[in-house]
Design brief:
The protein has 344 residues and is α+β, with helices and mostly antiparallel strands. Helix content is 13%, strand content 33%. A nine-stranded mixed beta sheet has the order 1-5-17-7-15-18-19-21-20. Strands 2, 4, 6, 12, 14 and 16 form a six-stranded mixed beta sheet that branches. β18 and β19 form a beta hairpin. α3 (279-298) packs across α4. The radius of gyration is 19 Å and the shape is globular.
């Protein structure tokens, strides 16, 4: 695998991509959309995103947030403009994505490495919504349950109630390349081999995501910011919040040959995913991918890798609510030969 020097805050990013109406897609991941930005491999970009919460309630977002005491001046101008100017197709998902970013010389069959250099909050409040028929416990509620959660940015805490405070761990619920032609444009709700709505909570600052490339330029999109989420996202939403990630993009020619599903890593672990509408099948795929990864990286037999996965790898449900379920195996790096990591 080739390497690139990580960008830092001290280094100017290549560009700042704003979430204005001309740079977003509401509910769909297209292929072949005109580039909002074109960069070279190795460059980094700060990307403004907006949460779909406040846009999908059928009322003006200023009124939506105003009902919870959020002043109109504290509602992002981007949100107001998207509500007024961007059309959402009836069959589309709910998420608003910023992009696409084209990376020069990225080709189908390549792998796109996405380094998460930072994830900034754009507002000091987020939303958690649920209701009848929603989430992994669809019969628990008999009415819509909506909560605006204030953020103490200085302390990095979400003020869930007067008594309960939760430490923030912001990440992008959706990071994706353009899908294959056969399924484009893809609805933003179900994830897939292209990435998408994986709700993979480990993708915080300092983590890395690896995606197979299906289209020229890769055509990267992101959105669905989460201030905090538990594995599973069981009531259907996290702390949904507008975020601005700073991401570095590195193309690995031909790298998708060993990447049937998205993969991630951070300082502590490699994360190998499996996806299916059936949770059992998603788990099976994740196990098979973990065994293949361990066998290749550790130089051990399939039987040894299967045993090691049973002894030392935790399998978790990233999300159980978006039609296609995501299971991932967390492989401790101590099991493998030591190697340098960019954020060390």
């Amino acid at each position: 695998m080739t390497s690139a020097a990580p960008a830092t805050r001290a280094q100017a990013v290549a560009a700042h991509l704003r979430s204005i109406p001309g740079n977003v897609s509401w509910g769909l991941i297209p292929a072949g959309a005109p580039p909002a930005l074109t960069i070279e491999s190795g460059q980094s970009v700060r990307i403004d995103t907006v949460s779909q919460q406040g846009l999908t309630a059928g009322i003006d977002p200023v009124a939506f947030f105003g009902d919870a005491g959020i002043a109109a001046d504290n509602v992002l101008d981007d949100v107001k403009a998207i509500y007024a100017q961007v059309k959402r197709e009836p069959s589309a998902g709910s998420h608003v994505l910023t992009g696409p970013i084209y990376i020069e010389n990225a080709r189908p069959g390549d792998m796109l490495e996405v380094r998460i250099l930072d994830v900034d909050l754009r507002v000091d409040y987020g939303t958690n919504n649920s209701g009848p028929g929603v989430g992994a416990g669809p019969e628990l509620l008999n009415a819509v349950a909506r909560q605006i959660i204030r953020i103490d940015r200085a302390r990095g805490m979400a003020l869930f109630t007067d008594r309960i405070e939760l430490p923030l761990a912001p990440f992008m619920g959706i990071m994706t390349v353009a899908p294959p032609d056969a399924i484009a444009p893809a609805n933003t709700r179900p994830p897939g081999a292209f990435g998408g709505n994986m709700d993979l909570k480990v993708l915080t600052r300092g983590a890395t995501l690896y995606l197979p490339v299906f289209q020229e330029g890769a055509q990267f999109w992101t959105g669905d910011g989460h201030g905090l989420q538990g594995d599973g996202e069981v009531n259907g939403t996290a702390i949904e919040i507008s975020l601005a990630p700073t991401l570095q993009f590195i193309v690995h020619p031909g790298g998708a040959r060993d990447l049937p599903w998205p993969r991630a890593e951070d300082r502590a672990c490699h994360y190998v995913t499996g996806m299916d509408v059936d949770l059992d099948l998603a788990a099976r795929i994740a196990v098979e991918q973990v065994v293949a990864f361990l066998s290749s990286r550790a130089g051990i037999t399939t039987a040894q890798a299967y045993a090691l996965a049973s002894l030392a790898v935790d399998f978790r449900i990233a999300e159980n609510v978006n039609h296609v379920k995501v299971v991932y195996g967390a492989i401790p790096k101590r099991l493998l030969p030591a190697s340098a990591y960019w954020s060390d």
